[in-house]
Amino acid sequence: MKQVTLSNVSKTYPNGVTAVHPTSFDIEKGEFLVLVGPSGCGKSTILRMIAGLESITEGDLDIAGKRVNDVEPALRDIAMVFQNYALYPHMTVFNNMAYGLRNRGTSKAGIDKAVRDAASMLNLGEFLDRKPSQLSGGQRQRVAMGRAIVRNPALFLFDEPLSNLDAKLRGQMRIEIRALQRRLGVTSVYVTHDQVEAMTMADRIVVLNAGRIEQIGTPSEIYHQPRSTFVASFMGAPPMNLIDADYRGNGRVYLAGGMDLPAPVETGRPGAVKIGVRPESARMVETETAGALPFAIDHVEELGAIRLFHGTLGGQPFTVHTSHEHAVPEGTAWLDLRSSTVLMFDGATGARL
Amino acid sequence: MNKTRIFDHLVLLLGVAFMIGPIAVAFLTSTHDPYEIHMKGLMTSWGGDFVATYDKVLFEKGGFTGKVTGLAMLKNSFILGIGFAVGKIVLSMLAAYAIVYFRFKMGVVFFWMIFTTLLLPLEVRILPSYEVMTKLGLVDTYSGLIVPLLASATGTFYFRQFFKSVPEELLEAARIDGAGPFKFFVDILIPLSRNMIAAIFIIMFVYGWNQYLWPMLMTTDESFFTLVRGIKQILLVWVGAQIPDYNQAFALAVLAMIPPILVVIVFQSWFIKGLTESDK
Ligand SMILES: Nc1ncnc2c1ncn2[C@@H]1O[C@H](COP(=O)(O)OP(=O)(O)O)[C@@H](O)[C@H]1O
Ligand SMILES: [Mg+2]
Questions:
Q1: 8 Å CB contact between A256 and A316
Q2: Residue A12 alpha carbon to ligand 1 centre in Å
Q3: Sign of dihedral through CA atoms A112, A114, A115, A119?
Q4: Spatial CB neighbours of B66, under 8 Å, sequence gap ≥ 6
């Protein structure tokens, strides 16, 4: 069942900037949908239009089967967690969580129960009488979550809620938020620029670029079958290797330096293409084998469990990901791409062929 | 190390003496009788008339019509000071709220119009203001004393700057929490503005307390006299051949100082507490 539907929703700000071009997608009930993209691509704008904090220039927004374009945020049955938490500084943790319920006229007993339940779920029980300024970043984050939970909304909206936390806490909260969302079963839209958050948390990912959707899919689809070079290079760290090549329609692609590979697809339209290979998909060997390509290693990054070899393939930057047990060859090694997943993209548009 | 410390303290003590000196002299002089003061000038010793003088100043009816006591003048000054401070804070907060949070046509124009009134203090518009008050029949009333001076560009400006520094997210969170414009103002903005309110209260209370020109114009009835005017009234006797009641004038001056000092002390501690708690 669809919980939220966007039909050709667009946003042009009063200053003339079109932040979101006509965009359509659905969010299933109970789904955790992540909007991901670089800074300025319009993620927050979409989220804020869903929240009702920003007007919708054109198109229709339905929540739970009702068009809500002109409905006040408070009446959309949503809750939002903000990047800077937006806790009321002068209120205690309890009152921060209770404020929305009070405004809705919930009974005193009802408020008390909802807040205490949420607080125990989030391990905030002992902090209920504190002000936000007396809490750590992680605890504030939890209060912001609590404020969303107590309202028992139809939809959670998150705008980069973890970006103010240190890396370790971020990893931990990622798991907590997701576990909590599963437990409550509340449909969620989560905005982030961090592709790791997107990959690890999402049921489905929407990749945005300059106000347009590049691709919608499960994390696995987005990672393994990117629809464009943009998605391929945005998702994954280090990103997918993209090498300029020439496709002549004869079943092979030709790289600079006289190298060539079997073409992964046949399009029948010769032209400039980009060849995409994930760093962990390329296999590095120390001796030349039939069909292997020479790989000039520039430097090696030790990351503990893995090693990253940065170098060039036919003069173009290329990175290979290996386990830490892999030997470190001197100077030139060989790349065997026969068993690798190789993708081919249009050289001009970046679309996958 | 020790030496500099002693020196530091000396400097501070000197500063204190410099500031307190005139007040102490005024207080000590007020405890002498007027003839002595008239002959010997300012006094630096305890005169022994303390109880008599202050009792007279506070409770004896004085003035030409014999209607007003020091206590009544104290009350009037309080009404003026508090009326001023509260009225100015309420008005300028509402004005700033409108300017910062509501997109209405020519909002910027209105802001600058309010701002330019800074260039037009009361003294410039005192005659027209007086005429308006006469026509409204507000001469010799508290409203007449207070209302014409309430519009405050300074207050509006400070609150505007403060409201602009309140994170936008807070407004959005409140909107999602179902707080309309009124609730946001009362539940969020006013509590957040405590320190600002305290600071402006101090300034405006003292300003109202010390008003002289406008009350003199607006009130002919002595029962509306403020302390500041009372001091002047006592010294006016000079035009006759009598010796003015110097002791009473000094006593009134000392009394007139106490409330503003209290206000500063009370609100200052609040203000500093608010600052150090660092809420925002
Ligand atoms: N209130 C606004 N007025 C004008 N332009 C805006 C406003 N908010 C955002 N934009 C512009 O819209 C684009 C998308 O912004 P945003 O949705 O905040 O991006 P993201 O959250 O993906 O970083 C940006 O180019 C930004 O400059
Ligand atoms: Mg954003």
A1: yes
A2: 10
A3: positive
A4: none
Residue A331: phi and psi, rounded to 5, are 60, -105
- Cβ-contact B193, B162 below 8 angstroms: yes
Burial of residue B113 (number of CB atoms within 10 Å: 0-12, 13-18, 19+): exposed
Pairing of strands A58-63, A32-36: unpaired
Question: If you take atom 1 of ligand 1, which residue's CA is the nearest one?
Answer: A13
List, edge to edge, every strand of the sheet that includes A18-28. A18-28, A2-12, A58-63, A66-67
* Chain B closest-CA separation from residue A99 CA (Å): 7
Residue ranges of domains in chain A, CATH in brackets: 2-232 (3.40.50.300), 239-346 (2.40.50.140)
In the block, residue with structure tokens 């499960």: A218
- The reply to whether ligand 1 has any atom less than 6 angstroms from the CB of A11 is no
B177 contacts A90? CB cut-off 8 A: no
CA of A35 to the centre of ligand 1 (A): 15
Token pair for A288: 């030349």
Nearest CA in chain A to B274: A90
CB contact under 8 A, A80 and B187: no
Distance CA A141, CA A143 (A): 5
Q: Please tell me the distance from the alpha carbon of residue B194 to that of residue B173, in angstroms, as a whole number.
A: 20
Which tokens sit at A214?
């590049």
User: Which value does ipTM take for this structure?
Assistant: 0.85
Let me know if A294 is exposed, middle or buried by CB neighbors in 10 A (0-12, 13-18, 19+): middle
CB atoms within 10 A of CB B200: 23
Are the beta carbons of B34 and B242 closer than 8 angstroms?
no
pLDDT at B237: 56
Question: Global pTM?
Answer: 0.83
Amino acid in position B167: P
Report the alpha-carbon distance of residue A32 to residue A15 in Å, rounded: 33
pLDDT (tens digit per residue) in A233-288: 999 888 999 999 998 888 888 888 788 888 888 887 888 999 999 999 888 888 88
User: What is the rounded average pLDDT of the residues A191-206?
Assistant: 94
A44: Cβ contacts below 8 Å, ≥ 6 apart: A159, A160, A191
Nearest CA to ligand 1 atom 26: A40
Q: Is the CB of A43 under 6 A from ligand 1?
A: yes
C-alpha distance from B265 to closest chain A C-alpha (Å): 23
Residue B115 to residue B96: CA distance in whole angstroms: 11
Q: Tell the residue number behind the tokens 């010793």, with chain if given.
A: B45
Residue A77's closest chain B neighbor by CA? Answer: B176
Q: Per the CB < 8 Å rule, is A104 touching B176? A: no
Distances (CA, A) of A57 to A45, A60, A193, B46: 11, 9, 24, 80
Using a CB–CB cutoff of 8 Å, tell me whether A74 touches chain B.
yes
Kindly report whether the peptide bond that precedes residue B148 is cis, defined as omega within 30 degrees of 0: no
The Cα–Cα gap between A207 and A209 comes to: 7
A74, A82, A90: residue with CB nearest B169: A82
In this structure, which topology does domain B73-278 adopt according to CATH? MetI-like fold (1.10.3720)
**Terminal Cα distance for chain B, rounded:** 38
Ligand 2 midpoint to CA A43 (Å)? 6
| Residue ranges of chain B with per-residue pLDDT less than 50 | 279-280
